[in-house]
Predict the structure.
Amino acid sequence: MPTERIRDHAGQGATTVAAHRRRLRADQARQLADLLRRQVLTGGYPDGTLPHEAAIGADYRTSRNTVRQALGLLRAEGLVERLPGVGTVVVAEKYPHGLDRLMGLAETLREHGRVSNEVRSAGPVAAPAPVAERLRVPVGADVLYIERLRRLNGLPLSLDLTYIPLDLGTALLGADLENTDVFRLLEAITGQPLGHAEITLEAVNADAHSATVLQAPRGSAVLMLERLTHLADGRPVDLEFIRFRGDRITMSGLLRRSL
Amino acid sequence: MPTERIRDHAGQGATTVAAHRRRLRADQARQLADLLRRQVLTGGYPDGTLPHEAAIGADYRTSRNTVRQALGLLRAEGLVERLPGVGTVVVAEKYPHGLDRLMGLAETLREHGRVSNEVRSAGPVAAPAPVAERLRVPVGADVLYIERLRRLNGLPLSLDLTYIPLDLGTALLGADLENTDVFRLLEAITGQPLGHAEITLEAVNADAHSATVLQAPRGSAVLMLERLTHLADGRPVDLEFIRFRGDRITMSGLLRRSL
């Protein structure tokens, strides 16, 4: 029956057009959200309030529906909130961590507040092969293991798992780990500055237990940093596995084309 | 009734001890998972198969239950899979992106395969203020907007939103954007090498639409890179907002203590 076919075809056509429009608007919302999120994160709204939807629409030459959808994306990320009678306000507390220079957390966030560390565990463990190789100690030799929940101004920021060779670790155990970066303590103990660190960054979803510890929703995005830090003389002294709450940290740096 | 009180107290005590044991095992599982994940990602299992649970338990001096829980964490991340009769196998395809030198995607992943780009959108748009300021063009001036889904060996890797000043953009529109990095095209068009880029990295959860485009689960962790690239003469020529699938990319580099 040709009529049915035509109707089917028309129906499909309509669906395709509608789907295309939805896709287009979703693309435009993402595009706008990326521009707004930068403004939000870099202090582009000094009084903490975003312009009205209509004003954003005019500034970015886009429809009010797209503006609403873009603000919805930023809300889902926890960057902004909508307050009745006030409008859309910035609620993010996202701190910049430098990618240009090797620094401890308290050092790099100095101007943003006070870092405190809850030591969840600290004591010797037998180094498994992947730890022993990187710290250049015999497999099975004791190394110091430290697990810390790190807070900035009282808010959970990261969960750090740290391995240190025991000759340095013993001195660390008596130190003020609650209030001092391990980097600073290592430099004080060895009497020499740190040299360099190899780092690897990944984005992962927080497992249930890590999320609980970080007081973040289960499955929330975590910036995972693995870092092997060496003294100035080249000796590897600090292997860390760090989970940063994705909604509380950005990493910034500068790359050059030629080395 | 004192008996009831004692029973309650004993009950609570038991709960606390059980909760403590669960927490301890979860902490140990995370600690083990972080060591195994490194092995998985750096080719520590050349034949793609992890040792038996009992062997891992012996190597890492931990219980079989902890090993199982750690492997469960890696499975949830999509790094390993359990095959009946075979054991635990590596299924991750996670590629290393350099953080030390400014490189295009095809360049940095050259040894891992072929990068192809699906151009979802390419055309002039009026530059909103945050784009205009960074590219140093007048607000409202046309810039080239390009949206690409980038694949490595056919698998979606990243979704890139790119803004280019129109004097360079016009030449780009006629180029082979499907198979060539924008970086390479910019160097060819301008006849000068790129200089440096300011980058910011974040971990975010993919919104529904971005997840669909990247063929990733909704809410999956995304490594978000914002990058403003300058020519060697200092002119900013390329503003990008890039969403990398968290399960397909790692970023590695070297940090120094003194600059």
Q: What stands out?
A: Residues 95-252 of chain B form a domain with the Chorismate lyase fold (CATH 3.40.1410.10). The radius of gyration of chain B is 25 Å.
